[in-house]
Design brief:
4 helices, elongated, disordered N terminus
């Protein structure tokens, strides 16, 4: 046999062997009764199908859109995700420095902790994570507006380090009226934290003033911190918040005064225990005291009451007063009244104030602080809300209705 014939013989043998093997496989397949072969784990086919990776995870930033300009200095970055179990947002400035902020409870928006730089450029990146580590990413780069000419001053009545009574509302004032349609957005950027935690809400007293109180009186020794993040926030008609502010303060001991017209007595309770009962004289029939819950809003060791321009001719007076504690803007005080000591506890002779003796006036003055609550009961005149810090003269349900977010 020559070499060529040998090679042909070997090829013929290999082809025959392959045909025999194929026949054997086909025969084996026929013996399975149509089932999948055991060597393929019963899955059928010569190879497994492509792995099912599940639904695609996506993320999208809906506001501000990428390349946006004139974005407010305290923007709300809104985003959506699909098929995600979790989502994280990171915001950086033009230098790549991270910007601190807070993600909303619903996980769909983010606001910075402080106003962004006027005219600055920032990048927001949202990363959504789904099952088996699948991810989706969205990026938006935007530019903050330049510093506007019209800025609204925002101020707090209370300052850092103060200690106030258990009835003290937190008070924030605006240098310009805030239109109703902007109040919800303004309120969202006002955050109050208390230790221990207590339920509370903001309440718009007027277009230029907002208060915060808890559901019940503050617990003694509560630590309070509130931040008003309004720098650059739109506040209507082309006006924007001037700056942010933060306040840290403390609630003192519980000191509550209750005045009963029926008994002509003031009951003083400190930290839940009655510590004193004081005879009083309230407003006479023509000038009754107001019934309702107030708080001490001002203290003057010595002052002068002058009603010469307020009352009818012949009824006005100008009198030196000691140990005065204001309860209403209309002029109702707790104060020492030596001229009525003989009838205190028995008869009402004042012009609407709560008269006490010199001794008891000094005792009270030495122990009270701003925000200590005073409730007067049983007089024919009802306290007008807004006449003083009358936050506690409303039920919790009524107070909640004063929130733009209610």
């Amino acid at each position: 046999m020559n070499a060529s014939a040998g090679r042909s013989g070997r090829r013929a043998w290999r082809m025959a062997s392959a045909a025999a093997l194929t026949a054997a496989v086909l025969a084996t397949g026929a013996c399975t009764g149509g089932g999948s072969p055991a060597w393929n784990d019963g899955k059928g086919g010569a190879s497994a199908p492509a792995e099912d990776k599940g639904p695609q995870v996506t993320a999208a930033i809906t506001s501000p859109a990428s390349e946006s300009a004139d974005v407010p200095a305290v923007p709300t970055i809104e985003f959506t995700t699909s098929n995600a179990d979790d989502a994280e947002i990171a915001v950086t400035d033009a230098d790549g420095t991270a910007v601190e902020g807070t993600t909303a409870e619903d996980g769909k928006s983010w606001v910075p902790a402080k106003q962004l730089a006027w005219g600055g450029t920032y990048t927001a990146t949202v990363t959504a994570t789904g099952a088996e580590g699948r991810t989706g990413t969205a990026v938006s780069t935007f530019t903050v507006m330049r510093k506007p000419a019209n800025l609204v001053r925002v101020s707090s009545f209370l300052g850092d380090g103060q200690t106030v009574g258990v009835g003290m509302p937190m008070i924030v004032r605006f240098g310009r009226a805030v239109p109703e349609k902007y109040r919800a957005d303004v309120e969202r950027r006002m955050v109050l934290e208390s230790t221990p935690k207590q339920e509370g809400t903001w309440h718009w007293y007027s277009p230029t003033e907002i208060h915060y109180r808890p559901k019940a009186y503050w617990q003694p020794d509560t630590k309070i911190s509130y931040s008003v993040n309004l720098g650059g926030v739109p506040m209507g008609d082309g006006w924007y918040g001037r700056s942010d502010l933060t306040v840290d303060l403390k609630i003192g001991r519980s000191f509550v005064m209750t005045v009963d017209n029926a008994s002509k007595q003031m009951t003083v309770t400190q930290n839940g225990k009655v510590v004193k009962k004081i005879p009083v004289s309230l407003g006479k029939k023509s000038t009754p005291s107001s019934s309702g819950t107030m708080v001490v809003i001002e203290k003057k060791r010595k002052t002068v009451f002058d009603t010469m321009d307020e009352l009818p001719e012949g009824e006005g007076y100008r009198t030196d007063i000691e140990y005065a504690q204001r309860l209403t803007w209309g002029g109702e005080f707790i104060h020492a009244a030596p001229w009525s000591e003989g009838v205190q506890g028995r008869t009402n002779v004042s012009h609407g104030c709560v008269n006490v003796s010199m001794k008891e006036g000094a005792w009270l003055f030495a122990r009270t602080m701003l925000g200590d609550p005073v409730t007067v009961k049983g007089t024919p005149r009802k306290l007008q809300n807004g006449n003083g810090w009358t936050d506690w003269n409303m039920s919790w349900e009524q107070y909640q209705q004063g929130s733009a977010l209610s």
